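Ticket #4471: structure output looks truncated?

Reporter: J.K.
Steps to reproduce: submitted the chain below (210 residues) through the standard prediction queue, then opened the result file.
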Amino acid sequence: MKKCIVFDIDRTVIDSYIPEILSLQEAIMNVTGKKVDEKQLKRITSLTTDNFFQTLNLSDEEIVLVKNEWDNTYDNYEIKCFPKIKEVIRKLSNKGYIITIITSRTMNEFHELDTELKDILNCFKLIVTSDIIKKPKPDRESINYLCNQLQLNLEDIIYVGDSGIDKIFSQNCNIDFIPACWENKELENEDNACFKAEDLMAIISKYNSF
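Returned output as attached by the reporter:
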């Protein structure tokens, strides 16, 4: 019996990819005069912010300046939830599922989304950010933390995420996984690949139909 649905946040609940990449690209250009291509910047979607910045050829001083500038450029882009995902989260919560989040964002970075998420924040029983634990995804520490906090077993959980890192994370944790492919098509050929948020309801229901 599945009791808990764990969501990734970026590119799963929030359509943040293009605003995140463009604003970061702009911030790096403003600080360094260098244009970093999208392929290199794409790693921000699977790493914590600090780990990602270590992959760029920037000095420590430049990293500090870029982070500060990114706060400014990020505000120029509108970030929205994917169509129907809020309704799906509300329905799952109303059906009695425990709804949680595990994200590579820090808590401060998560709170940048408060305006867009404010009407569903009360649906989330627990939000596990990368600064709460020592080893973020794909390490299993965050799922162990979640299980301890909510008194759950691994077999109680389904994880919904969009990337290969999310798939590896679910494998490392030995939990069921639903690929969210409404923006990132990286996992479109995987079992249970989901192309519309509304499809989540049917796929999750199948787990509890036996």
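Triage note (M.O.): checked the attachment and the full token line is present. Residues 17-32 form the longest helix (16 residues).
Status: closed, working as intended.
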